[in-house]
Design goal:
By secondary structure, this protein is mainly beta. The chain is built from three helices and eleven strands; from the N terminus they run E-E-E-E-E-H-E-E-E-E-E-E-H-H. It has one domain: OB fold (Dihydrolipoamide Acetyltransferase, E2P) (Beta Barrel).
Length: 181
């Protein structure tokens, strides 16, 4: 019988499981030894960390900029943004390119993470609200906690992480930079 099929597998006659449409998809990654996730709908791509160009007079959460196929992309030190200490880059360090929407266009931003794990899916019932204490993170940056094999994954609110006043000003400045040819 099909009742024992894991979620996501096709059922008889190719029909998807009814819960598939409501699943939460998130990119999971490590940061400071802890697992985190962001909604996959904001993720454009993942690039190897080969260094960034520092920009004078930027706040500490802005590591610099990269040239991504001719587009200047600001890079946020996600650990610093979350109030944690940054780790030195390793072979596994990546930049997750996310896109933010405003009224006129989408803005790419890079998030430095220690390593990318996988894209995972959770049922809505597997995501708990963030506790009001004990996370050592600003509560407005956390959407919730997703159950994982050995504990929980902290699901971050990408829009809130990048909505910080300093980052908004950077996006405005970024929009006025000339595009590389």
């Amino acid at each position: 019988m099909n009742a024992s099929l894991p979620h996501g597998e096709l059922r008889e006659h190719g029909a998807p499981h009814p819960d598939d449409a409501t699943r939460l998809s998130g990119l999971t990654f490590m940061l400071g030894g802890e697992p985190y996730a962001i909604g996959i709908d904001h993720v454009r791509e993942i690039v190897e960390y080969t260094g960034v160009t520092a920009v004078p007079m930027m706040p500490p959460v802005i590591r610099g900029i990269i040239n991504l196929r001719g587009t200047v992309v600001p890079v946020v030190d996600l650990a610093a943004r979350l109030g944690k200490s940054s780790q030195p880059p390793t072979r596994r360090t990546c930049i997750v390119i996310v896109e933010l929407d405003d009224e006129q266009e989408r803005h790419p931003m890079g998030l430095v993470v220690d390593s990318v794990l996988a894209v995972r899916q959770w049922l809505p019932s597997e995501r708990e609200p963030a506790p009001g204490f004990g996370l050592n993170l600003p509560v407005d940056l956390v959407v919730g906690m997703c159950k994982a094999d050995a504990g929980f994954v902290i699901w971050l609110d990408t829009a809130q992480i990048l909505a910080h006043a300093e980052l908004s000003a950077l996006i405005e400045r970024h929009a006025t930079l000339p595009r590389a040819a």
